């Protein structure tokens, strides 16, 4: 199979959308990621998958920490910005949670210490030990077939 076929097949898996953030000194970095999942309840572990060429990788390696913000259905602009789809620089007013920058009004903000890393093809899997979590109500921003979706739109596709 070619790369396009594989990518199309993986796009059939509906996911939520997150923004991963970290900080080194006063320098904050963030990126949109839908490659996120929980791994373990005891200890509480999650995993994020970061392209080996992504700039944020170096910041996570130095800081040893990262935060994950699970976006709500009204935060497509945040996802687009941190995915590099918006060219202009915007001053982001972060929510500071457990001394880490997170996206305000997200469904979930969680902070992690890097527990382990695994090289997997052209990505690095960062396994994070969750140090704190904050939960809010709302509907998630979803991603399906390469496009943002709202959960109701996915239900209506039946």
TrEMBL record:
What does the UniProt keyword field contain? Oxidoreductase
Task: Name the domain of life this protein comes from.
Answer: Bacteria
Which InterPro entries does this UniProt record tie to the protein?
Flavin_Rdtase-like_dom, NADH-dep_flavin_reductase, Split_barrel_FMN-bd
Xref: Pfam families = Flavin_Reduct
Domain Flavin reductase like residues, every copy: 10-150
Q: Does the keyword Magnesium apply?
A: no
- Name this polypeptide is given: Flavin reductase family protein
Organism of origin: Virgibacillus tibetensis
